[in-house]
Design a protein that fits this description.
Layout (H helix, E strand, L loop, with lengths): L8 H48 L2 E4 L2 E4 L3 H7 L7 E7 L3 E5 L16 E7 L2 E14 L2 E12 L1 H36 L1 H11 L18 H48 L3 H33 L7 E4 H13 L8 E5 L9 E4 L1 H18 L5 E9 L2 E8 L29 H11 L3 E6 L5 E10 L1 H16 L2 E7 L3 H14 L3 E7 L2 H9 L9 E4 L2 H9 L19 E2 L3 E3 L3 E8 L12 H10 L8 E4 L5 H11 L4 H11 L3 E3 L2 H9 L5 E6 H8 L5 E4 L5 E4 L2 E3 L7 H12 L1 H10 L14 H8 L4 E3 L12 H14 L3
Parallel strand pairs: 9-11, 15-16, 15-17, 21-22, 21-23, 25-27
Antiparallel strand pairs: 1-2, 3-4, 3-7, 5-6, 6-7, 8-10, 10-14, 11-12, 12-14, 13-14, 17-26, 18-19, 19-26, 20-23, 20-24, 20-25
Length: 799
């Protein structure tokens, strides 16, 4: 027995989908997200815990109390995460800070324990994951706790969480495909009634507009009724179309028959006067036929153009003037008084979304109706006036008008209310179709002149608003911009890059301010409320990393074709753009090329064996005053114990220290120095080209390479322009300018090698060790670590 209410499609689909997707999409997704988060946290927490243990092992009791020698390995462990910023703090709970950032947040009531404790807190505008771990240290005052707190931002671990989750979702997608198979079967089964309706409609003839019969399920009963409602509407529409065609055929046939009758009577007339009378009647009938034909065509045209997609911004005032000019050229308008009043509407305030052809036809019909139904010397007044977001186009005449009772029928097709003029009955229906197509309102009333008043009310576009919206764009396009660059690079060395950028960016001027590396670092830390520069450039990579690690830099999206080496970029915020090897520059008159040492160990032996010969004639950086010198010295110390041995040997030879490469090279050129150790290669090579007796030397064991780095500070006034400048430095064109027009070396050395230093680099390319942009550079910026290193350096030099 069939169910009169019909089966439920919704219930069938829900049952099919529930079995396939409920557990998969809800439980598995939730569990997968939780698993991915825990897995990412465990992975990165191991780095934090390992770094904390490495630091705790270097905590000791000294003459001045508890101290720590921050191990390089701790920062290198954290550098295994190449994205996140790092903060650390070493302290004695409740007593004093030993080193690091003393304002790191700690949960209330947290006490250091030997077991690491992990937590997340906001710090300086970013979310950090912290580890807090302690160690008991025995001292003169008994045992006391020393705590280490290390934190990293969570960008990498959240990205890894998403990666784990996406991998799990791939498996879930396979299961989902199986579920979709079940859904497909359910839909095929449940929607069979719709296929039956489709088959019924497909078999019908185009003329068959019978309603679809059947008892559909209640879920599609609304669709079923809508189809039958559409069929009924289509049937009514076809009926109206057939009626309209019949009316057109009847009107045209009647008019042509009357015309033929008059002509036939004129042919049969026996005298001239009767013939002339019949011909005049035939002429008037022909005119009515022409008018009827024109009206029918105009009506069809207006209906065809009623689509809103064809509407465009149209100014009414010039359109009305054009129609009036055309009308005045008609001989029938010689005695008609035409007037137009539109001064109250300013230029730009008469713009509507409209179709000018349709509006012209409506206005032309209103004028012709006024002339046809009025006396020979009738008056027609056209007024254009605005009110708020509306604009009114009013046409008034001095004709007989339309009785108030007949106004509702006046816009019907083939309805003529005047037997005297007996028009086609399409004029006002065309005006009504134009109004409907524009979403406008048509009102008919008695005019002040005694005849008919027809008013079209349109919604207008305020051109002034459009103009106001465009003004900021125009003003912005014409405004000149200044890019402020603070840099620790000599201005002459970087000037070709700046000039090339200005030439390729019209309207932009670069304001270049030169600093020493340490001064630039201090200036960025002491900005206060002052606006930062747009770009910061420095060769002191460790100081630059420190600024970025403090959260002072913004992320830069480089074009996809620009891919710097991994060692020359960090967090997509700081980028190296030059290749700057440390070089030994020597006076050929004091040192022969044959006796040059092959390695750093050989250099120490070479100086020790010639101590009296080179006493006071060896130069290097004063690392207490030079950021680059300190960077080179600390990185040398990481290469092996020979660095400290070399410092001691240089100290016994009374090594001289300088602030910068240019002074060291100049002293060597004057013969004051025999050689210089750890000079910046590009600067030294540029100066040595002018002094033939100066030579460059690289070692076989290793040669440190630093890179001039650039970043865009947060709060920069022109961040987009600054991004473009950094991208230009790294672009193929920018690197070509670096290599060909500046004393600097491009980031990736590539043939052909035109300068001597480039040829020397290519001879032993594998011996160059780039300094990597990573948190590991922060190790020797720790206050205690820096003090201990400088003290050891001073001691080695015998100062």
């Amino acid at each position: 027995m069939s169910d009169p209410a019909g089966h439920s499609l919704q219930r069938r689909l829900l049952v099919s989908m529930a079995a396939a997707f409920a557990i998969l999409l809800i439980l598995i997704s939730a569990l997968l997200w939780s698993y991915a988060r825990n897995a990412a946290d465990r992975t990165h927490d191991l780095l934090l815990a390992g770094a904390a243990l490495a630091i705790l092992e270097r905590v000791s009791e000294g003459p001045e109390g508890v101290t720590v020698d921050l191990p390089t390995s701790a920062m290198e462990i954290l550098s295994l995460n190449p994205v996140d910023r790092v903060q650390y703090r070493i302290f004695i709970p409740g007593e004093r800070e030993i080193t690091g950032a003393g304002d790191l947040p700690v949960p209330p009531g947290a006490e250091p324990e030997a077991t690491p404790a992990f937590f997340e807190r906001d710090y300086r505008g970013a979310l950090f994951r912290f580890v807090l771990q302690g160690r008991q240290l025995a001292g003169s005052g008994g045992r006391q706790w020393v705590a280490v707190q290390i934190g990293q931002t969570v960008e990498r671990r959240r990205a890894q969480q998403l990666s784990f989750f996406a991998t799990g979702l791939a498996g879930l997608a396979v299961l989902s495909l199986i579920g979709l198979g079940f859904v497909w079967v359910a839909i095929r089964t449940s929607l069979s009634p719709l296929r039956q309706i489709a088959a019924d409609l497909a078999q019908r003839e185009p003329s068959d507009l019978r309603e679809v019969e059947g008892a559909p399920p209640r879920e599609i009963r609304g669709l079923f009724d809508a189809i039958n409602g559409f069929i009924r509407s289509l049937r009514r529409s076809r009926s109206l179309t057939e009626t309209f065609i019949a009316d057109v055929a009847h009107q045209t046939r009647t008019s042509l028959s009357a015309l033929q009758g008059h002509l036939s009577l004129a042919v049969d007339a026996e005298d001239y006067e009767k013939m002339r009378s019949r011909v005049l009647k035939a002429d008037r009938q022909a005119a009515r036929t022409v008018r009827l034909t024109n009206q029918l065509l105009a009506n069809a045209m207006v209906i065809h153009r009623s689509d809103r997609a064809s509407l465009r911004p149209t100014a009414l005032k010039p359109l009305v003037r054009d129609v009036l000019a055309e009308s005045l050229r008609d001989s029938r308008m010689r005695r008609v008084s035409l007037s137009f009043v539109g001064e109250a509407v300013a230029e730009g305030e008469d713009v509507i979304e409209g179709d000018s052809v349709s509006i012209r036809e409506a206005l032309r019909n209103l004028i012709e109706n006024a002339v046809r139904h009025g006396p020979p010397d009738t008056a027609v007044a056209i007024t254009l006036e605005g009110a708020g977001d509306r604009i009114r186009l009013r046409v008034e005449d001095a004709g007989p008008g339309i009785a108030e009772a007949d106004l509702p029928r006046a816009t019907e097709r083939f309805t003529s209310l005047s037997q005297a003029s007996a028009g086609s009955g399409l004029g006002l229906s065309i005006v009504k179709a134009v109004a409907d197509g524009h979403g406008a309102e048509l009102t008919l009333a008695r005019s002040r002149l005694g005849g008919l008043e027809a008013t079209l009310i349109f919604r207008r576009i305020l051109a002034a608003l459009l103009l106001a919206a465009c003004l900021p764009l125009a003003a912005g396009g014409a405004r000149a911009q200044t890019l402020v660059v603070h840099s620790a690079t000599d201005a002459p060395a970087i000037r070709p890059l700046i000039e090339a950028f200005e030439a390729r960016t019209p309207g932009v001027a670069v304001d270049y301010v030169e600093f020493q590396t340490l001064d630039l670092h201090r200036a960025m830390l002491d900005l206060g409320d002052a606006a930062p520069p747009d770009v910061v450039i420095s060769s002191a990579m460790d100081l630059q990393v420190d600024l970025v690690n403090r959260g002072l830099a913004r992320r830069i999206e480089l074009p996809p074709q620009i891919v710097p080496p991994p060692w020359a970029a960090w967090r997509s915020e700081i980028f190296g753009f030059t290749f700057e090897p440390a070089v030994m520059i020597y006076d050929r008159q004091a040192v022969s090329p044959e006796e040059l040492p092959a390695s750093h160990r050989d250099l120490a032996t070479f100086v020790r064996e010639n101590e009296d010969r080179f006493r006071g004639r060896i130069g290097t950086y004063d690392i207490a005053l030079s950021g680059v010198g300190y960077l080179y010295a600390t990185q040398d110390s990481l290469q092996g114990p020979q660095a400290l041995r070399l410092f001691e040997v240089l100290g016994r030879a009374d090594v001289r220290t300088f602030c910068c490469t240019s002074e060291m090279v100049a002293a060597t050129a004057r013969g004051e120095l025999a050689f210089v150790f750890n000079a910046i290669g590009s600067y030294a090579a540029a100066q040595a080209e002018a002094e033939p007796h100066l030579g460059l030397h690289f070692f076989d064991d290793y040669n440190l390479v630093m890179s001039r780095t650039a970043f865009v500070p947060k709060g920069a006034r022109n961040p987009e322009l600054a991004d473009r400048f950094v991208a230009f430095l790294l672009s193929e064109e920018g690197q070509r300018i670096v290599a060909a027009q500046t004393p600097l070396l491009s980031l990736v050395p590539s043939p052909p090698a035109e300068r001597e230093i480039e040829r020397r680099i290519h001879e032993r390319l594998g011996a160059f060790v780039p300094i990597r942009l990573a948190p590991g550079l922060l190790t020797y910026l720790d206050a205690l670590k820096r003090k201990d290193f400088l003290d050891a350096w001073e001691t080695s030099l015998g100062r």
